[in-house]
Design a protein that fits this description.
This protein is mainly β. The protein has one domain. The protein has helices at residues 26-31, 84-87, and strands at 8-12, 17-20, 36-43, 49-51, 54-60, 63-72, 77-82, 93-95, 103-107. The strands form two sheets. Strands 8-7-6-5-9 form a five-stranded antiparallel β-sheet. Strands 2-1-3-4 form a four-stranded antiparallel β-sheet.
């Protein structure tokens, strides 16, 4: 992984904007209840950095799969949390190995319509 792994962004709820944390104190943002997302250090097929909370599209066995990049505190790793449809067909913690097949299509704060997000 690259130095990108230590990049963060947050969602500003009062104006519905995603911002880089470069000019902000991450601990103050967390204390203020701002959703802070860490970069995985990986890039999608278009060269876009993949962050926790990103909604990505990929293919598994020729099926289009849309899921959310999620951090697992117990396993200390990122995984692709897939939609309910694929929970019956595939394991939900599909590993993030082949990012060249992933495409970031949104995130859980600005594009809730792309995936059913459990609150």
């Amino acid at each position: 992984m690259t130095e990108d792994r230590f990049k963060f962004r947050f969602f500003e709820t009062y104006n519905n904007t995603m911002l880089d944390c470069d000019n902000y104190d991450i601990y103050e943002l967390l204390e203020a209840g701002k959703p802070v997302m860490q970069c995985t250090g990986l890039k999608d097929k278009n060269g876009k950095l993949i962050y926790e909370g990103d909604i990505v599209k990929t293919f598994i066995d020729r099926d289009v799969v849309i899921g959310v990049i999620t951090w697992d505190n117990k396993e200390l790793r990122y995984y692709l949390n897939t939609t309910d449809y694929f929970k019956d067909k595939y394991v939900t913690d599909y590993e993030i190995w082949y990012t060249e097949y992933y495409e970031v299509i949104g995130n859980i704060y600005e594009n809730k319509d792309l995936i059913e997000v459990e609150e």
